[in-house]
Amino acid sequence: MISAHTKFIVIIGDPVNHSLSPSMHNACYKQLGLSEQYVYLAARTNVTDVEHVVQAMRAMDNFHGLTCTQPHKVEVMGHLDWIDSHALAIGAVNTVVKRDGKLKGYNTDWIGVSRSFEKHGIGLSEKRALVLGAGGASRAVIYGLKRKGSKVTVFNRSIDKARLLGEEFECDVLTELTSSTISKFDILFNATPLGMHPYETESPLPQGLIQAHHVVFDAIYAPKETVFIKEALHVGATVIYGWEMLIHQGFSQFELYTGMKPPLDVMEQILLN
């Protein structure tokens, strides 16, 4: 079904072998009868080679879309023709689309955050949210929470990094994890790599700090149940899984790449299988 006319989309990252995006998008192409028009691929790419990938995208007529996962979301910004206002505010791009020869950058991660809460019927206005981590993933999380009216606090093992992020997004910074401080929050959001390979046995919080009133959201989707999520389930907290965020950010990404809405049930089936 693939021909010289097929447009291709590539996800780049380092690592990228764990990504479920190719399976998710290609299944939707098949469901919608778009398999002749689009194919979604993955390629592990060193951050120093991102510029070369963008140059290839300019040079190759049917290189239609580029998805950037860690650690490429910031690096790619310096090589684009236009960047969406949300992506500029976040300071990261995860979606690049070629339109009329121009490379345009977007960020759909923050949409994945917002829509995941909406699907659970959880309003974010005036909620007290603790974001764990101060890396690239945290930026879209903070932006999505603040845009919906949450009061965001950041914690990171490197307090200096947390303070820099807090200043940029006008957030409070937590310097110590204790039962009394954690109990004050409504939402606990893991935006660190702790829980995924090779940190499967680790959690961003010491054991015993999660309580039943918390909404616990883990951006990690593989494994489905991280140590962080398992403890939340054990104490009866409300849980939002990383695969839910992946689906909703992928939904918006699919629309940008194709102009069509993907079947959510197909996305969900691929990820849960």
Considering the chains and any ligands shown, give keywords for the structure.
single chain, 273 residues, alpha/beta, Rossmann fold, 2 domains, 6-stranded mixed β-sheet, 6-stranded parallel β-sheet, 12 strands
Describe the 3D structure.
With 273 residues, the chain is of the alpha/beta class. It has 2 domains: 7-107 and 245-272, Leucine Dehydrogenase, chain A, domain 1 (Rossmann fold); 110-240, Rossmann fold (3-Layer(aba) Sandwich). It contains 10 helices and 12 strands. The chain has helices spanning 21-31, 50-59, 85-90, 109-119, 136-147, 159-169, 179-182, 227-235, 242-258, 264-272, and strands at 7-13, 38-44, 63-68, 82-83, 95-99, 102-106, 128-132, 151-155, 172-173, 187-190, 215-218, 238-240. The strands form 2 sheets. Strands 2-1-3-5-6-4 form a 6-stranded mixed sheet, with helices on both faces. Strand 8 (151-155), helix 6 (159-169) and strand 9 form a beta-alpha-beta unit. The model has no long low-confidence stretch (mean pLDDT 95).
